[in-house]
Amino acid sequence: MEETTWLSAIWLLSENPASLFALIGMVALLVAFAYIKKITIHTRLLVHIGLALALTVVLHTFRLYHMPQGGSVTLGAMLPLLLLSFRYGPVVGYLAGFVYGLLNLLQDPYILHPVQVLFDYPLPYMAMGLAGFFRDRPFLGATVAVVGRFICHFISGVVFFASYAPEGMSPYWYSLVFNGSYLLPELVICLVILKVLPVGRVLRTIPK
Predict the structure, then answer these.
(1) Which positions ≥6 away from 187 have C-beta within 8 Å?
(2) What's 102's domain CATH number?
(3) Residue 1, in any domain of the structure
(4) Which domain holds residue 166?
(5) Helix segments in the chain, DSSP class H
(6) How far from each other are the two terminal CA atoms of the chain, in whole angstroms?
(7) What is the full DSSP assignment across 125-153?
(8) 63-66 vs 72-74, strand pairing mode
(9) Which 3 state secondary structure label does DSSP give 63?
(10) Which of 3, 10, 157, 205 has CA atoms 20 to 30 A from the CA of 111?
């Protein structure tokens, strides 16, 4: 009887992608917050998070291109969150990314569904924290973080923006092209800046 109940629940979730991804998104948030609760927050850390968020908001206003359904190519707006993650590790990156996701929701809202908001705002910017796992390999860290962000936007595109796809185009292909068209240039810009900046020296000058 219990097995039948589980099978029924799985079937219902598979029939309703929004519910399935809502569950996945909430689990991801809960896991991240379980680690965030363990952070010892001191004044210096708060100042550094505040500076990173302020720089990210400012850089986000310098848009080279703005997509019609949201998403922009900027002058390296993700760089402050990446540097914060490199210096303090992934968990602080998750926290800063979550806060910036809420700020971006106020700054540049595009809302179709509550679950879409989850996958287009808090979760993709929390993915910037993944760079913290690769603090000694900043190019790889930045790439992994942007790929994590892409996956969140890709899911949102497939589930909630399928109706925007041109006639005859698969929603998977549409979401891939749409989100890749601004995240790939965004990644390239961040990698170029990381190449120019003496990242190791900059991070060493930021006391923990």
Answers:
(1) 142, 143, 146
(2) 1.10.1760.20
(3) no
(4) 15-204
(5) 2-15, 17-36, 43-61, 79-88, 90-107, 114-120, 122-126, 138-160, 171-196, 199-204
(6) 54
(7) HHGGGGGGGGTT-HHHHHHHHHHHHHHHH
(8) antiparallel
(9) strand
(10) 10
Q: What is the 3-state secondary structure (H, E, C) of 27-50?
A: HHHHHHHHHHCCCCCCHHHHHHHH
pTM of the predicted structure, to 2 decimals: 0.87
Residue type at position 193: I
Residues 6+ apart with CB under 8 A from 117: 105, 111
For residue 119, is it within any domain?
A: yes
Q: Tell whether the torsion through CA atoms of 88, 77, 151 and 98 is positive or negative.
A: positive
Distance CA 117, CA 87 (A): 28
The SS3 assignment for 62 reads: coil
Contact partners, residue 193, CB within 8 Å, separation at least 6: 76, 79
Q: State the CB neighbour count (10 A cutoff) for residue 18.
A: 14
User: How many domains does the chain fold into?
Assistant: 1
Cα 194 to chain center, whole Å? 19
pLDDT truncated to tens, each residue of the chain (208 aa)? Answer: 444 454 454 444 445 667 777 788 888 999 999 999 989 888 999 999 999 999 999 999 888 888 776 778 998 999 999 999 999 999 999 999 999 999 999 888 888 888 889 999 999 999 999 999 998 899 999 999 999 999 999 999 888 887 777 888 888 899 999 999 999 999 999 999 999 888 777 677 766 6
Residue 43 falls inside a structural domain: yes
**What would the two tokens of residue 68 be?**
């019609």
